Amino acid sequence: MAWIGMRSSPQEHWDYVSPFETHGHIREIYTQLHGPADPDEDKIAQIASAFSQGRMYFESAELAPLGVKPVLLYYGASALLAGLALTRDARLTQRLWPSSHGLTPVGWRNVLYDTGGDLLKLAVRATKGTFRHVVETVWHGHIETVLYGRHDRRDTAPYTHRLGEIGFIDDGSIVTFADLVSRSRYTGGLYGSATRRRRSLLRATVWMNPGRGPSGVHVNVDIAERQGECWLIEHAKRASLPLLGSDAKPSGAVFPRGDHDRNGEPDLLPVFHYEDWGEMSVCEAMPNGDKWSELLKLYLMSYIVGMVARYYPAQWLAVIRGTSCSSDTAMFVSAVTAIERNFVREFAGQLAVLGDDPHFFSEHYGHQARMIAPDWRCYIGATGTGKPIIHE
Fold it and tell me: Could you read off the pLDDT of 191-237 as tens digits, one per residue?
């Protein structure tokens, strides 16, 4: 299986996902997760149908005009995540799958019917339903490339980054469309220039620095640009972390790696990304302090643009035709493109973790793949008794 990276094609993404439409492949993964007992054939059929329908939605979205494309993308993403949840949870069946989205709009009518309303302020709050199941199903982490050892040699290595729990589903906080598009690696670069607002992505250099002391390996983040009081520096100060550079002009911060993956604690390190051409960036946390994976950001984006297109067609068509009074409509079109091109890429990574697929990672990292921490195995190994199925 080819590595699903930033340069891989949409067909390569689907080549990784499509085996989950076959009963034999699902049965193998399901048995690996839940034990040797023969899985119920009806459950296998439910999983295969969810994956198949997700693909059909995305195929239809590829051919659909922009006026209806977001609706198809949202339901396609929902179907794929339902297939993942049904695979992951032995107790869950199609009959028990919630009928509600698990998200509720906050103040949409005021924004959408207000002439010149700021569409980036469209906000949602979590409720009981599908979104909660999604959050409880997916692996809250990502495997990213970092520089390793000597900074000037530009050697790279994999880094398993544990992002922590998602408080949004319980704390009553809201997330706006601006919160999402400003923090996504796929739309954050456009956000500053398109909206003239403060960006939540900063160019940076992230490297692992094996050090001595109780915290073991450190992860250094060196900011390549500054915009006033950098949020990363402020975060480091509040967490009492060492700063890089002088006291007057810190250029970054040092984050202890330690044994966070082993004891279940999330890293303090912010979300970061490595691009194929060597550029790196760090991402600000959500307003409530959560650190979200790209999968969750894209999924919530798809909900917002999908529901606007579905229930507010006049406003949505004004956005895509350029007749909306809002000056931020470019971010909506950019979000639709990001979802269509990259949601399946991120979803394929979830399947690699689910299936404990070492080839998925070794074809990209080679012998360094052994450095990837096995914390996802806690995610896939839990059973009703709390005993792991897959051991290191």
Answer: 888 888 888 888 888 877 765 444 445 677 777 665 545 777 777 88
- Residue 146 near residue 274 (C-beta atoms within 8 A): yes
**Orientation angle between helical segments 294-311 and 69-88, nearest 10 degrees:** 130
Q: With pLDDT > 70 as the criterion, what percentage of the chain qualifies? A: 76
Please report, as a single letter, which amino acid is at residue 91.
R
DSSP class of 117 = -
Q: How far apart are CA 323 and CA 303, in angstroms?
A: 23
Helices marked H in 18-165 — which ranges?
23-34, 41-63, 69-88, 108-112, 130-137
For the chain, the distance separating the N- and C-terminal CA atoms, rounded to the nearest angstrom, is 22
**H or E element in which residue 295 lies:** helix 294-311
Give me the helix-helix angle, 313-321 and 294-311, nearest 10°: 110
* For the chain, the helix, strand and coil percentages under 3-state DSSP, each to the nearest 5: 50, 15, 35
State phi, psi for 255 to the nearest 5 degrees. -115, 125
Question: What angle (nearest 5°) sits at the alpha carbon of residue 231, between those of residues 227 and 234?
Answer: 120
Q: What are phi and psi of 3, to 5 degrees?
A: -65, 135
How far is residue 5's CA from residue 176's CA, in Å, rounded to a whole number?
Answer: 28
Helices 330-354 and 69-88: crossing angle in degrees, nearest 10, is: 20
The answer to whether 1 and 359 are in contact (CB under 8 A) is yes
Q: Please give the helix or strand (H or E) that residue 378 lies within, else none.
A: helix 376-381
Residue 133: count other Cβ atoms within 10 Å of its Cβ.
23
Is the pLDDT score of 309 beyond 70?
A: yes
Tell me if residue 143 falls in helix, strand or coil: strand
49-66 residue pLDDT tens: 999 999 999 999 999 999
Strands 201-209 and 141-148: parallel
This prediction's pTM: 0.87
Q: Which residues contact 44 (CB under 8 A, 6 or more apart)?
A: 23, 26, 27, 30
- Say how many CA atoms lie within 13 Å of 35 toward its Cβ: 10
